[in-house]
What does this fold into?
Amino acid sequence: MAESPSMWFMEFVTPSVIQQFAVKDLVYSGQSQYQNIEVMDTVSYGRCLVLDGKIQSCEADEFIYHEALVQPAMSIHPAPKRVFIAGGGEGATLREVLRHNTVEKVVMVDIDSEVSDICKRFLPDHHQGAFDDPRLELLHMDAKKYLADTNEKFDVAIIDLPEPIEGGPAYLLYTQNFYEMLKTKLSDDATFALQAGATVVGITEVYTAINNTLKAAFPVVFPYSADVPSFGGSWGFALASTTMDACKFSPEGIDRRIATRVKDSLRFYDGHAHQGLFFIPKHLREAIEKETKIITEDSPMFVWGI
Amino acid sequence: MAESPSMWFMEFVTPSVIQQFAVKDLVYSGQSQYQNIEVMDTVSYGRCLVLDGKIQSCEADEFIYHEALVQPAMSIHPAPKRVFIAGGGEGATLREVLRHNTVEKVVMVDIDSEVSDICKRFLPDHHQGAFDDPRLELLHMDAKKYLADTNEKFDVAIIDLPEPIEGGPAYLLYTQNFYEMLKTKLSDDATFALQAGATVVGITEVYTAINNTLKAAFPVVFPYSADVPSFGGSWGFALASTTMDACKFSPEGIDRRIATRVKDSLRFYDGHAHQGLFFIPKHLREAIEKETKIITEDSPMFVWGI
Amino acid sequence: MAESPSMWFMEFVTPSVIQQFAVKDLVYSGQSQYQNIEVMDTVSYGRCLVLDGKIQSCEADEFIYHEALVQPAMSIHPAPKRVFIAGGGEGATLREVLRHNTVEKVVMVDIDSEVSDICKRFLPDHHQGAFDDPRLELLHMDAKKYLADTNEKFDVAIIDLPEPIEGGPAYLLYTQNFYEMLKTKLSDDATFALQAGATVVGITEVYTAINNTLKAAFPVVFPYSADVPSFGGSWGFALASTTMDACKFSPEGIDRRIATRVKDSLRFYDGHAHQGLFFIPKHLREAIEKETKIITEDSPMFVWGI
Amino acid sequence: MAESPSMWFMEFVTPSVIQQFAVKDLVYSGQSQYQNIEVMDTVSYGRCLVLDGKIQSCEADEFIYHEALVQPAMSIHPAPKRVFIAGGGEGATLREVLRHNTVEKVVMVDIDSEVSDICKRFLPDHHQGAFDDPRLELLHMDAKKYLADTNEKFDVAIIDLPEPIEGGPAYLLYTQNFYEMLKTKLSDDATFALQAGATVVGITEVYTAINNTLKAAFPVVFPYSADVPSFGGSWGFALASTTMDACKFSPEGIDRRIATRVKDSLRFYDGHAHQGLFFIPKHLREAIEKETKIITEDSPMFVWGI
It folds into this structure.
C-alpha cells in the first residue's frame, strides 16, 4: 500500500487556509538581503520558487501565470519595441516578452540580484535561456527609483512583483503615486500589465483596490483572472493602457499577431483563451465596480502575511 | 499576536496536495448507508458539506459551482419545463433549476436520503427552501435505475454527483452506457450538464475522458471550467445537447432569458460570465482534442481516492 | 482502504514542531474574559480541554498528568489536611487531592469561572464529581491576590496553571516573588508541587529555570518528569517542601499511605512509579545544575507562544 | 513577525496522530532494495534518518534512544566481549557498544547495505567513526539467517530494528521462534535488549506482546521505557537475560562499571537514570501482566502502517 509522502511544503494562503505540496527535494534554501529564497521540487507542480514562504511560480503551471501576465499586454500592442519589467526574477516573464520578434530592448529591474542568480542556476525550465538574450538590460535596484530617473519611454510595462506586504520591498509599487509616475515613462499607445492578487471569493480586496487605483491613473483598465493552481486558486491581473485604442482588439487579431510575431508555441494563451481571461464572473465585476479605495503611499494596502 | 486556529479540515486533494481549512464548528458528523457525512463551519468558506472526506460545496463559493453547473444548460434551452437531477443532495442545484419560471416539474434522484435530510436541516443557505417547492418530485434510489424504468422525457438533465471513485456509488453514471441511455429520456432539443472533475494542470484526465465520452453519445458537447476555490482550484463541467441548435446562443440572448425567466438575482452567471466559462485555455482544449479514452461500464474511470 | 480522518486539531508545540490529533467532534468552542476555550473529542486521546489553542488535558492520558502532579506531594506529606490549588479548572487535580481521606479542606482558586463551568458541564470523566465535594471552597479570582490576603495555612499546595506566556494570566505565578509569598502560607512540613514545562531535549529552559527559582525559595526541591503523550512528550514537574523531612519517603511508605488513605485505585502512581518519576536522566539533572536563572517579576520567563 | 517555516516532515504516528517537524534541508532521498531512505536536517531535532516515512533517529535525541537501548544490557553484564547487533544502520548502537573497553568483537548484521552507506556518509554525528573500529564485523544479510548458521556465541545481543510492519523485513525477528533461536547463540550469562514499540497510552499492544513473548523464551525479562521526543513520545524497550544473576545489579554497580569500562562521557545514562528507565508506571506494568499474546511466525504482530 502506497505510503503518504513525508516532506511537505506548507503555506498559509490566508490565516485560515493552508495548502501543502509534497516535496521531492529541497534544491536551494538561503536568505538574501531582502528575503528568504527557496527552490524545491514538488511532486505535483515540479520545481517551484518560494520567497518568504510564498509560492512564486512552479514549473507545472507557471506557463499559465506568465502567459496570462505578459501575452495580453504584448499582443494588443501594435508593435511593442521597448519593454519594462519590474521584478520577475525567475526570467519567465522575460521569456514571454522576448518571444515577440518586435521587441528591441527589455529593461528588467529586480531589486534582489540573488533571486536572479538563484533562478538562473536552478530554474532553467523557467527562464529557458532568456537571461542570455542580448536585448536584455538587467538591473538590480529599486524599480521605482530606476523609473523616476530614466529618460526611456516604454511601449509595454509588466509588473511582476510579490504581493504588497507590510515591510516588504514591493508595496510602494502598488500605489497611485507609482502608477502616475510610470505613466509618464510610457509611450502614447502603451500597455501595462500586473499581477493583482487573488480573486478567490472572500479575499478579493487587493484585486479590487488595485483595479480601482489603476482607473485613477489610466484611461483604460481591464481586470482579468486566470486559474493558477499552485497559487491556491484563481489569480487576478490587470491590464491598462494609455490609449482608448487598446479596446479595439479582437480574438482573431490576437491569433494573427501571435502567428506573425511570436517565437515557439504558446501553451495557455491564444485569441480564444484571451476571452476566457477577460470575461470574468459577475460577482468580480460587481466587486470592482463597488470598490472605492485608491491605494496611495499615504494609504497603502497589504495582503495578509504571517 | 493572533494565534493560529486550532481546528482544521484536512483534505488530500491528490496524494501529493493537501488543503486545510480552519474550522469553527463541526455541525454534524455521521455515517449513512452509503457514505460518511459531515457538515462544518469553516472560517474562510462558511458552512461546508463533506462526503467521505471530500468537500462537496461550501456556503461562500457554492454559488459559483451551482450556477456554473445549472445556468448554462437552463439558459440555452428555449423553454425548459421538465428537469432531471441526479444527486445534488444539498438542494442548491435544485434551487438554481427552480429559479426558471418555465419549469413545471423537477425529478431529483439522490440515492442517499440521509444526505438530503442532513442538508435540509443544516444547510438552509444552500437549498433556500427549494425542497418545499411543489414542482419537486424527490426520490431516493439509484438514478440509473430510475431513468431506465421511467417513461418521462426531460428537457434538461443535470448530473451533480461526486467524482467517480472505485467502489463508490457514482462511477457507473460517468459512462457512455449511461449517457446513451439518458439520451433516450431527453426531449428533442434537450440540454445536459454535469460536473466533470478538476481542470487543474496535471490532473485533467477525468475531465478530458468525460468530455470525450460525451462526444460519443451526443451531437454537441461543450467543455467548460470555473474556479471553485474550496475544491482546490479550477473545476471542469460539460454541457451537451441533443440538437445542433444549442450552438446558436449569444451572450445577449442569455441576459434576455435571465431577465425574463429567472427569479432573484444570480451572483456568478450572466451572458458575460457565460463566455468566461466556455472560452477555456488552449492547453485544456488541446488535451480534450487529444483524448481517445471512452469510459464504459467495462472500462470505467476513477479519480484518485485515499 | 481506510480514508484519512478529515477533522484535525493542530498545535504548534514549538514554532518548528506541530502535533495534530484527529477530531471526532468539537463539543464546545467559546471565548471567556481570559482565554479561548475549546472542548473536543479526539480519536486517540478522547475528550480534551484546549485553552488558547494549547492542549490542557485529555481523557486518555490526563490520569498520568494529574496523578504525577498531585500524588507525590500528597503522599509524602504525613497527613495533608488543608490543600491549596491554583488553576486546575478541569477538576482533575481536585479529584486527585480529594482521594486522600486525610483532607479536610481544599481551597481552589481559578481566575476563569467560565473554564470551571465548561469543565463541570463537558468534562465529567475529568472531575468525576469532585466539584460537588463539601470539602471544596472554589474561588474565581487571582490566585496570587487570594494568597496574599488569606490567613489560612496550607499543608499542600498544587499549582496547575498553563505555562507562563507573555500577556497571559499565569506568568507571575512562576516567579521567586510568588514562591516566597506562598511559602509564608504553608505549614511547617508542607509540600508544594507544580507543572514545570516540557522536558523535551532542546526546550528545557523553562523547566530548569523554574527548578532553579524554587531552590531560591525552598530548602528542598525535587525536579521530576513524566511522559504525557498528548502534551507532545516528556513533561516536567517540581516538588518542594518547607522541611528536610520530605526527603525521607520510601517506595514502601508510599504504597502504605496509598493503601490506607486513598479512595479508589490509582492508575499511574504507586511507590514503584514514584521512583520512575524522580530518577530523571543525567542530561536533565546536569541542565538543572548548570541553570543560573532565577525568575522574578522583574525578570520573568515565557515559553514560546504563537 | 516571524513567519512559519515552509518545509515540514509529516509523519502519521498513528492514523489519528500526526507529528510535523520543520525541515531546513533534505540531505538525501532515495530508494534502496528494501525501503525508502531519507536524511533531513530538522530545526528542532537536527539531522534525522527516516526509513519508509518513519523517523528512525535524530541527532538531538538519538543519545536517549541509543544509550537506553544499549547501556543497560552492556552495563549489567559482568564482562561483555562478543556482541551481536541486528539492524542499527546508523552506527549509533554500534558506537554505544564499542564504548565498553571489554568488547573484543561486534558482529553487526543489517540487511540493507545502502542504509549503512548513507549513514556512514551523512550521519557522522550518529556513528562518530564507529564503522572504522577494527572490532567490527559488518554484514549485509538477513540477521535471522546469519544467526541460524553461525557457530559464534555472544555475550550481549542488541536488536535495533524498525517496528514489525506487514510485508516489512523485520517482523520475523519479533517472534518467539526468533528469540528461542537467538537464545541458543548466547553465552550462559548473556543479556539481550531490543526496542519494543511505543509505550504511549492506547498503543501499547506491541510493547506488551513483545515483553510477553520474551518471557516465553527467557528466564528474566525487564520491560523498560524512555522518552524519545522525536518518536512522538514514550518508547518501550525490553531487556532479557539467560541468567537470573542479571537481577542483581545496583545503581552504584552500574556507575562503577561505567567509570572503569566506558570511553567518553555518557549523556543520558548512569545508575540514577537506570532506575528511571526500569521503574515504569503502574498502568504499563499492569498491561504487561494482563498480556496473553505470544508472537510467533504463525501468529505475527504488526504495528499500524499507512
